Amino acid sequence: MELPPKPQVWFLGFNKTHNSSVHLTLPRIPYGITVYANTRQKQTGSPCDVNHCAHMCVPLPSTYGLESKCLCQDGYNSTDKGKTCQPTVTSKGAMYVYALLDRICAVPIKRTMKTSDDDPKKYCFFSSASKAYKFRTVDFNYKAGEIYFTESGMSVKTIRRAQVENRGVNQVLVYGTGDVRGLVVDWMSSNMYWTDVDTAAIWVSRLEGHHMSKLIKDVYNPVAITVDMQTR
């Protein structure tokens, strides 16, 4: 039985004739191949040499020769064409967000995956020593870097939101709600929905709180709510 020929790699000479070529016999079938030599990567000047970018520089062809462009890595943006790069509001990554009646907390998931003696309270905000606030439900809009929540401890119950990057300041979106037990943000259509036990209804409005409308009436003790983004 005749054995199959062993794999070979052939290198042609500059005149591209068979007589000027050499070959290597290999023990296995070769796949990727390249020639490591300084003549294949000539050291010439780059337009990136004079373009001082914060993160990275990419050469680009143009009618005047080579130009370059600055780029920021994912999670950063720039207002000066990449000379400086600033974190976006969503660059902090994933977080556990929860309400503890008298405060709201947002703990980075990476933080919880490490062995640490960190006090989780340092990630909380809107805390009240007098227990005047009652935060019950939370949701978020990741692209906008916003956290939405309800407050039912004051005389006028509200739905509010705060920026992830500036949690100490919150904005009232809806005044005079009833006992809201469920809140969900529809980030695709820029609506929010909530359940109201006092009015026995499910409500909807724009994310800014405008155009509030009673969506479903006569719902007994409505509590949790979610939005099916796939089949809605």
Q: How would you sum up this structure, described in words?
A:
- LDL-receptor class B repeats lie at residues 190-231.
- It is a single chain.
- The chain is mostly beta strands and 232 residues long.
- The chain has two domains: 48-88; 95-216, 6 Propeller (Neuraminidase), CATH 2.120.10.30.
- The chain is built from one helix and 17 strands.
- The chain has one helix at 109-112; strands at residues 8-11, 22-25, 56-62, 65-71, 76-77, 86-87, 95-99, 104-108, 124-125, 135-141, 146-151, 158-163, 166-175, 180-186, 191-196, 201-206, 213-216.
- The strands form six sheets. Strands 10-11-12-13 form a four-stranded antiparallel beta sheet, with no helix packed on it. A four-stranded antiparallel beta sheet has the order 14-15-16-17, with no helix packed on it.
- The chain is elongated.
- The chain starts with 7 loop residues before the first strand and ends in a 16-residue tail after the last strand.
What fraction of residues sit in β-strands?
35-45%
Q: Please outline the major beta sheet.
A: 4 strands, antiparallel
Q: Which regions are unreliable across 5 or more consecutive residues at pLDDT < 50?
A: none
Determine and state the CATH class of the largest domain: Mainly Beta
What's the number of domains?
2
Name the structural class. mainly beta
Q: Write the H/E string, N to C.
A: EEEEEEEEHEEEEEEEEE
How many E strands? 17
End-to-end gap: 67 Å
- Named CATH architecture of the largest domain: 6 Propeller
Classify the helix fraction into a percent range.
Answer: under 10%
Characterize the overall form.
elongated
Rounded to the nearest angstrom, the radius of gyration is 30 Å
Q: What is the helix tally?
A: 1
Strand order of the largest sheet: 10-11-12-13
